[in-house]
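Ligand: zinc ion. Inputs:
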Amino acid sequence: MNFCPLCGHAVDQRIPEDDNRLRHVCSHCQTIHYHNPHLITGTLPVAPDGRLLLCCRNIEPRKNYWTLPGGFMENGETTVAGALRETYEEARVAAINPRLLSVISLPAYDQIHLFYLVDMPDFSFATTPESHTVQLFTVDEIPWERLAFRTVKRTLEHYLEFASATNPPVLNDHITP
Ligand SMILES: [Zn+2]
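Predicted complex:
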């Protein structure tokens, strides 16, 4: 950040009083512009027959790799609402019954990924601009070598570790490079 988004003056990096980290501080209006981690919220959708829904990405990064539906939370929404919204946006699934499944910090990327286990009320799903293929997989069919993100892999492993339980415990983990 070079210029203050509020007043347009130059922004300096310094440690504000009573703080211990370098911050972007406006030289004119003195506003401290904090940069904090982003939340990525998504779901692991389970079909009525127990198969798992994955999306093949139609966009970079990791285009043509398989992922769980998810994305950046918007301001003004809850984590659950964001996860359900992303699930509809990426796979046209009207998911129900969200249960928190994993919370994974990625300190090197300034992100936190949350995934909810959700039920699909029926077999309705579709491709979208973000997912060129949407497909149901049995446990044995999961494309482990073609998963887009480590948080997706970790979340799937956790779900399977608990034998695909209806209400598995929440995984609280972190991933470092
Ligand atoms: Zn300013």
